[in-house]
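yo

u said u wanted the structure for the complex thing, so here. seqs first:
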Amino acid sequence: MGYLELKGLRKSFGGLPALDGLDLDLSEGELVSLLGPSGCGKTTALRIVAGFETADTGHVVVAGKDITSVPANRRDMGMVFQAYSLFPNMTAAQNIEFGLRLRKAGSGERSKRVAELLELVGLGKFGGRFPHQMSGGQQQRVALARALAIQPRVLLLDEPLSALDAKVRVQLRDEIRRIQTELGMTTLFVTHDQEEALAVSDRVGVMSQGRLEQLDTPAVVYREPASAFVAQFVGVTNTVLGRSESGAVRLGTFKLATDAAADLSDGSDVKVIVRPEDIGIVEHEGEPNGALLGSVLTQSFLGPVTRLVIRLDGDEQTIRVDQPSNIAAAYPPGTAVALDFTASRFMVVKA
Amino acid sequence: MVAPVTTSAGGGTAKAASPGRGPTRGNVLAWLVVVPFLAYVGVFLVYPTVLVLAGAFQDSNGAFTLSNLTDLMKGVYLQAFWRSIELSAITALLGAVFGALLSWAVASGKADGLLRRVVVAAAGVLAQFGGVPLAFAFLATVGFQGFVTKFLQDTFGVNLFSGSAWIFELPGLTLVYTFFQIPLMVIVFLPALDGLRPQWREASESLGGTTWTYWRHVGGPILFSPFLGALLLLFANAFSAYATAAALVSQGSPIVPLQIRGFLTGEVLLGQENLGKALGLGMVIVVGVAMGLYALIQRRVSKWQ
Amino acid sequence: MAVTAKPPRKIAGTVLRVVVLLVLGFYFILPLVAMGEFSTRGINNTRSLDSWTGIFEDPDLVDSILTSVELAVLSSVLMLVLLVPTMAWIRLRLPKLRRVVEFLCLLPLTIPAIVLVVGMAPLYAWVNYFLGDSPLTLTFVYAVLVLPFAYRAIDAGLASIDLKTLAEAARSLGASWGTVLWRIVVPNIRTALIGASLLSVALVLGEFTIASLLNFETLQVQVNLIGKRNAGLSIAVSLACLVFAFVLLFLLSYVGQRRRATVVED
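structre next:
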């Protein structure tokens, strides 16, 4: 049994389902991300936990106590919003103090807590600043401190990094993870950025159309996606169109033997989904030999790896292949190559 | 020798305008474009304004005098100013309070909803060009033969005018002015209410705040400045208003704009031709102070949003 | 995605909201109803539409309506001609002048119309000497009167586009400044221009102070005049004015929205 449990949550807005039976368990001190495209229901789930929305059916349980009908202001949830959630008429310190004041904490205790929290989020000297005098990243740090000030039972993060610059985003997400681990805070983190979710979470829940497609550790979600949707949403993937043919998939002149094709009727359109780093490459000259052939179109240098875009012979499809940069150098644009992903991971689904 | 800063600045602008031309010429040409506007505004706005302001300090022969202004400080004129200020202050307060309530009721609905569209459009009509029609609306309602007057008389035997012909005096003006003051408040105050982000309320709630705590510590303080600003704007608006009062009150001149009407329609004593301009100057000063404060508050407010 | 549904405990707020709307709604609708009632009174407690049909039978009134409509159009055009090139030019080339122009445009808010008309009276002696005493000469004052509202609308329009970049792009493709103005600026701030024009139209149609004190017979002046002898007719016209202005502004709110909708689609 988890510390925070979401049981069978359903919610629709004006007939449109936003959550279609969501179950989720978080153990104490765990950080779970809900990842998905906009409209998948992840924010709705978070807002139901926070108490800002009421689920049509289902329950929210914290530490064994059903809080489904407890109003938001008595739930003790710390929430960090997307942006601009700091009270503009209060300084950073006053913002952090707000929740403590409502809890009737003494002034000595309050200022001690505020100083600690400012220190924790690395803004020791910024207590006297107003929100409009701080950068977006600093504002979100204050928002985090404000949410933590009330020593919440659960920390809720609603895309707290999405309004920030790429560099600040990476910095702050690592810091959130550090603080969360330090405090052992049970945290539900909502984001549409898969890199972010994979980087900071204990477990990632990938959502689509109000349902959880997969819930597992970042490594498993990435290496063993439970569905085509998860594969395509998490990380970079190639989708190659082909046709099933007697227990295999035909891509041009190439026949990809796979068990997955066994269930598909002959001649039906299929998609082969494969990550760029899971494709092998060799130089190829001469006659077709039954391998998947193509030629290098462009190269983009990404640091440790170089991404090659290969145009497949016989049709207009392109496919991205990542190779260590020193190896990729041997395949300048125009090189005829043979691709190999028979041995590696891929997924075959109906088109 | 030419100062290097001037040269480079001039050259830079000119290059952007028309390559190949001399810096001075480009600059002059750039300025030429705005000449028609400046000339027009000079003739039809600045000149008449200056005429009034300067006239306030001249006697009927054009010589400098302060007698117009000293006349302003006594008797009927001073009374008119006090009455105007009283009327404007009261209607500004009424307008601000009820207008803020109405804005709040509208703002919490859907942003593109029909209710909001209707209220905003109606507020625009009444606030900005009600004028004469408002006076007639008022007469149709509580005039001697008005709808409400007759209804009260026929149904309850109540005579609205048992005391006096109040609708043509200050109480009547106060009432009819609320019909454009409340709408103006809606127009001015709605954007401020829209500026309240739902996150603030939710943040307050998740930290344990109630609706009251939110308004007491967050919403209220944030809206205080816009409210004060709107109050000033409403004051200036009522103080400058003429049409409604003019259409309603044909006898006597209880307020400053109607005093000025007297001077323009020929009820002028010899040697007092420029007293009307002094009244104008007085109005500009009062309105100017209110609008100046309003602008200051606006600048402060814009920092938060 | 962040659609908000109200938790049940916000009921108190909803009740208060409804009460406010009902009370103030009644306060503002009552005069309209009264106008409707008053303007349809016949002899001996009967109902009659005489006041309404009378609108078209009074030649002075019809004349004054035409005058006001012409004034509204002329003033809007003059306002656009004065403001659009100037404001665009100032953003592009003379940002130093921006404060000055803004100050001048907003000045009429600080100079009450009743004060302005005191200074206008001598000026109009000259205007009428040179151009005759047609009421259409009011266009000159009205273009000034609508400046603050038009300025704000157009300024908002110009602020919503990246004028400098657009102009630089057009210039680099060989456009003259005239082309930039006509083919780039105007189409891109079309909504703002429509808004500014409609506001001007409504403002001019409702203007009374200046017209009446300069002795020109515009719609509002005529309505006021008729009110002295035929209250029913004046009230009918007043109601028509208010309704017309309302429809104008109501439509305006959709003009703004269509623009927003296209932005979202993009």
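Chain A has a mean pLDDT of 89. The first helix of chain A runs from residue 42 to 50.
cya
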